[in-house]
Amino acid sequence: MSRKTSVVFSIASLLLFGLFLNSCSTKNERKSSKQVILIGIDGMGVTGFEQANTPYVDKLVRNGALSLKTRGVMPTVSGPNWSSHLLGAGPEQHGITSNGWTKDNYTVDATVKDENGFFPSVFSVIREKRSEALTGFFYDWDALANFYNVETINKVVFSKTYQETFEKATPWIIENNPDFSFIYIGHPDEVGHEHKWYSPEYFEALEEVDEAVGVFLNALENAGLINNFHFIIVTDHGGVEYGHGGLSMEEIQVPWIISGPGVVKDRIIEQPNNVFNTASTILYILDIEQPDAWIGKPVYGAFAENPVSRENTNSWVAPPISSAKSGIYSQSIALEFNSVTKESIIRFTRNGELPDENARAYSKPLLLLNSSKIIAMAFERGYRSRPVEVNFILAKAIENIDLLYSPSAKYSGEGNMGLGDFIIASADFKDGKWLGFEENDVNARITLSKPEMLQKVSIGFLNNPGSWIFPPEKIDVFASVDNINFKKVGSKILAENINELQGGRNLLSVNITPAETKYIKVVASNIGFCPEGHPGQGKPAWLFVDEIIIE
Prior knowledge:
By secondary structure, the protein is of the alpha/beta class.
């Protein structure tokens, strides 16, 4: 028996007991449709949601509304974000800034506290405003209980695994038909840390959780309770490599799903959203006024009764899954696209334009022999997915790089060869991949692995004036056949191309006179000093570069 199968059977066996309890209970009749079940799936980033095969969660999306633009709070770790979901505010208000927070161990004071030292949560507000209401909290991360006053919750159950969490939550919910329940699942986050975010193991973890969610939903349906509840599925952060906590959009931007009575069906929520809006939305459904200490607001775009929802006319279509990412490559590749659902048709372009219904349909791998930008979208039910872009850069292999001026010891990246290792730095100058030069130019002498016919040279640089990091004044390219006598073959002055620049990382290309050569010199000129009007006026300026690409 596979691990996934054993998960389902272990949960299903317990549901029989839950259904028996339900058959003896009349509590189901006392509730209306103003009830909420919140399911928290730790570490499920947007990429994870869109690329994992999760039919049960997808069914909730089809029957409800989805935000793909929900923002987490800083830092992008579990404690601040899970607390924000249920406290209706961010760390600046509730004071929870780390996973190790307790009411007796913190650095930021909460704006308000109850007599036990806790910021008001969904649980405590429900208890205060509706004393007869039933609430439940089922979880498998022990630190989670530190963030809420659990004395205000009717049922609090800690389990060691997500399977056990569902096994304990299901019969209690069926028997008691509660007003609000929170089920927390930590499995995908644990797997992401162990095996890497967006690894096969990570996607399998999401699919295992989805199957457990499906068993849970089927149990509620068999008990005649499925229409009682609003279901909200949330997460706390995405991930990069083996962790999270940074500033990347993969970590900050997360999916947010809601389904239930009065919720628009099969729609994408276009309005901005934040994790602390979850608490406000729960109270909105329960018809309970939120406390003044909260800064969240209900996600009005999800509710058909609210005029804001009329702005949301798009339906979610899972984007294609690409076999390769944008990046620099040393050889041609066969690019493949796959659909998440059988109903989708993938269409693509090679010219950098967005595909439409008339664009070429994908049917077989695309052989990329030259640098090109491929954009693909999935089309289904008259709607289209977000675009998936693969910016494929085919570069010449570099044998050696010598620098006339050494970078700063603080910002030496991976050494000279870091300028030709095909690893693109982020927009964060502290990520360990940038080479930083204070006042000096970048003067790189490059030896290719063999003589090549060249047409273009590109250089990646950082534009961050707030940190005294400026674009180069100009870029000059020289070529040589003997590594002694160099001839200028191309140049670009940044002042003439300043409108091409954006804040953060930039890649600027210089078209050169086609020539076969093995030796190239690239000179990126530092502006020297911070310009007039800048806070560092007259002080040495920084030039940060990360990759020199020879095509």
